[in-house]
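thread from #wetlab-drylab

HS: before we spend reagent money on co-crystallization trials with iron/sulfur cluster, can we at least see a predicted complex? here's what I'd submit
DV: go for it
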Amino acid sequence: MTKSAATRARPSPAHETELLLAWYRRHQRPLPWRQTKDPYAIWVSEVMLQQTQVATVIGYYQRWLERFPTVTALAQASEDDVLHAWQGLGYYSRARRLLEGARYLVREHRNELPRTPAAWLDVPGVGRYTAGAVTSIAFGAKAPVVDGNVMRVLCRLYALPGNPQKAPLAQELWRLAEALLVTGAPGDVNQALMELGATVCQPKAPKCSSCPWSSRCRAHAAGEAERYPELPDRPKPTQVIMACAVVTRGERVLLAQQAEDAARWASMWLFPTVEVRAEPEATAALVRELEERYGLRGRAETKLGVFKHSVTRYRITLHVYTCRLDAARRLRANARWCSRDELRELALPAVHRRIADQWSASGARSE
Ligand code: SF4
């Protein structure tokens, strides 16, 4: 039986933090970035974990540190190498921001990475959350973190109404997260808070009976845990239909690099792709695209398949055709004919990688 909200214990950050840390010591997951105090490695893990599941990140994190073991190694890498290492993880602007940030850090701080949140806030692409996470975990800085997990836990613990992404509640959450850094190592408190949100205080059906704060949580006491946080409704998914061409010449296939400022998949390598209103327009749109954009005259032949992909609110469906060339002029500078080996070395978005794998496995030639 739950007590009423009125009879709950009054908030006492020191006691709440002690309960939280005791729980964390027993229940934390042994994640690879928890075995290090290297600020560079922690920074990489924090950026990878934004909008990506822990289980997906682990392999990427380990391969990344083998490929770019230090901030200097990353700063010296090419954007193509960095995007290649990131491919499949999605939200590629994160990889470009890491590269830009690494170059800034090496230029401004050499190999001695900064120890304060204020200095990290000057790093391109680093916001208050990342600055707090890196400096609290690596250096013990008393800097709070508020991400989606922390926001949810605190809104429930204190039964806070309102939109937590907007003022005044957004600022209040930072203040409450900071108040919890009253005892223990700040990096542990921050990680414990995030761990609680990730494994116990989940968005749906929180496991309140396993929670160290179950006797102090106001939302749980009122039987209203899932009422918080009061987030606005998500925008409805937008359907996007694309036609995509697998154009071959001998054993090579045509790939084109997106512009640096492209809204989607910037700087990555794609099969020629064009957005259409509906699937019946696909083949004609591809013929037009090949001619106008690549100087190639050809026709769509067989359908290789339908590939689906989701990113943020977009639900993308690609209708993929093999295309036969009738005539070719000189290719544009950002397009090239790639062998199967070269294809493996380029950074392709996950859905185009799946198309490449299918084409490679088929051993198909259309010329
Ligand atoms: Fe979340 Fe339940 Fe714990 Fe409250 S008691 S913080 S709702 S898991």
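DV: The chain has 15 helices and seven strands.
HS: ok that's useful, forwarding to the group
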